[in-house]
Structures are given as structure tokens and as C-alpha cells.
């Protein structure tokens, strides 16, 4: 059994437009609309729990310092990488995958619903208004469960898109979610967040409650997908085999090895995520309503950079897009360094500038994934995606707590300086990977000829 058989992806619903009868076309149109609606609802819900802003701030509110803030990114990367691998066989043998898609989306609402209840009722505080000792632990458990469900949800989304949407329309599906979802998310945040965050406790209750409702609505939307049943069979495999085959990709494929090095270096950006707000605010109290502009500018950055990098990748290849996005990702830590060295405006009226280039991070992840798909044969796509996911997760698991300790003991300047240097090395590594689409070797190899 090949590991590539473990994940039900890249299954064509039909090879071409000519082979689809009118009913199939209607079904695909309905499915396209429902899948787009699902992504739009998730995108709008996500802005109220932005990982680089809202979630670390809430951890500080409930009594967690830099180390516990660093644990957030560890749990998110573990959830996005390990559970999908373990869930892959269950999903493959499911007759209709939409039930898992709906179930995961609905379940994603539960952790944030629980956080909303804790905030709204005040149960997380003692009689003196201080966070109860158990609240950081409860928060971490709910956070970990959310990202485990999110990883399973993303795997199911990939499988259903491969099954229900033709390959030439999958890019449009992503574009639709960005073009429609990002403006709605930004407008919703600008409209609601300032009023909500006027009160700290009720503000977080409203943020998390809104996310929970939108995630639940996204799950309901997928119940109406028109999906024919599958009839796959697969015997169980030892869990270690999944990870062994992912390692073999890096061991035997030079292109994958170069990409793995780039991915490990770029994972530095994840380790910095929980610390941007604390660095900009010097770890002190601030008006929570400032988060509104920060989350809006970061989401606007994601949309804007996607529109720039997407056509660049289509025309010149994913390597060219990675040159741009990794270079852009270096700007955020550089701005924090400038703020820490005395450029006070970056802590005041222009603090939003720090969060705009954070939009390069999810865009870079997309092109790292696309590059992995391009260097792999079709039946090996899942194996390569798994390998890249583990390359993103494992350095974060080891490094993020150390980054949190360094921030606690030495401050944020050495943290962001080291992160900036690592991203510069990652940028250098983008010139050492080949361009498979045009049959080009790495730019470094060409220069040495």
C-alpha cells in the first residue's frame, strides 16, 4: 500500500466539460457555490480569532505570558499536521465525505462557543476579578481541539474539492473565497469589533461567539452538497508508516529536500506570530479596540498579496512567487525591530504597518504547497504534502517554547532579530530551489556554471 493511497485527493469528477451531462453540470454548479459559501463563512469567522493578534492577546488576558503564548503556535501546527494524517484512512473509506466535512465544521464551533460562554458568564474570573488558575489550561485544551478539527476539516475540503470540482475550476474556488470573503470579513470586523471591545470580557465573548456561529453555519452549508457515494476499501496500517514515508520523500528527492530546508527556515515566521502584539505594545495594557485595525489590515494584506503572487506564479512559476512572498515576510520582523529600537510611531498611530506584511505568511504556505505538488508525480501528492506539513510543524514544536522563554528572559529584540535573520536565509534558499515547470535548475546552480 502506497502512502499516496491514504488520502482521497485529486480525484477528477469528470475529465472534461464535454463528458459532463446537464445534471452533472448543475450538480457541480451547486457544489461550487456551497463550497465557496463554506470557505467564505470560515474566512469571516476566522477574522474574529486572528492567530497573530486576537488569540495571543486573550492568552495574556487570562494570565498567560510569553511561554504560554508560544504554546498556541505549537498546538496549531500540531493540529494542522498530525490529526489529518491519522484521519486519512477513515476519510478515504467514508461513503460520503460531506458528512465528515459538515461534522468537522460544526465541531469547530464548539471550542469557541465554550470560550464565549466562559467570557460571557465571568466564570473564568475569581471574586477579585483575576483569572482563575485553571483558565490558561482550559484555553490551551480548547485551542488544541479546535486546530485538530481544523486539520481534519482542511483534509476533507481537499478531498471533496478533488471529487466534486474540476481541476480548472479549483483556482476559481479559492479566488471566490478571497474576493468575496475578505471584504465581508473586513467590513464585519470594522463594524462590530470597536463596539464589542469597549468591554474586555463581553468583547471576547462576542468575538468568540460570532466565530462559533459562523463556523456552525459553514458546517450546515455543506450538508446540501450533492455527492455520489464512494466504495473504497483499505486495510489498516501502522501509524509510524505514515511518517516514515513522509521522511522518505525528503531522503530520496533532491527537490523535496531543498523545499524542506526552505520550509523549516520559513517556519520561523510561525514562532514569531504570538509575540507581535506584545512587542508592539511593550507587553503592557492597551485599548483592545486597536485590534480592529490590525486584523483588518492583516486580512487586506492576505487578499492583496494573493492577487499579486497568484498571477506571478501562473506566468513564471511557484519559485518566482516564493521569491516575492518570502521577501515580503521579512518586512514584519524588520518593522518590529525598528519599533523596539526607538521608532515610536510604529508603536502608535502606524502600528498597523507591522501587521500588513503578516499577510505574506498564509500566501507563502499556499505556494510552498503548490511547489510540492508540482515536483511530485500525481499519485505522490499526499505524501509530499504530508512531508511539507511535518517540516512546518516539527521545528515549531521544538523552537516556539524556546522563543517564548527567550522573550521572557531577554526581551523581544533578540527574538525578532533571530527571526529576521532566519527569514533572510529562507529568502536565500528560494534561489537554491529549481523551477520544475520550465525545467530550470536553481539560480545558484546557474550562477556557478
UniProtKB/TrEMBL annotation:
GO molecular function, one term: transmembrane transporter activity
Membrane-traversing stretches: 29-48, 54-78, 99-124, 136-152, 173-192, 204-225, 258-279, 291-313, 320-343, 349-372, 384-403, 409-428
The entry's keywords: Membrane, Transmembrane, Transmembrane helix
Superkingdom of source: Bacteria
InterPro entries reported for this sequence: MFS, MFS_trans_sf, Sugar_transport-like
A Pfam family it matches: MFS_1
Protein name as it appears in the record: MFS transporter
Organism in which the protein naturally occurs: Aeoliella straminimaris
PANTHER family named among the record's database cross-references: INTEGRAL MEMBRANE TRANSPORT PROTEIN-RELATED, MAJOR FACILITATOR SUPERFAMILY MFS_1
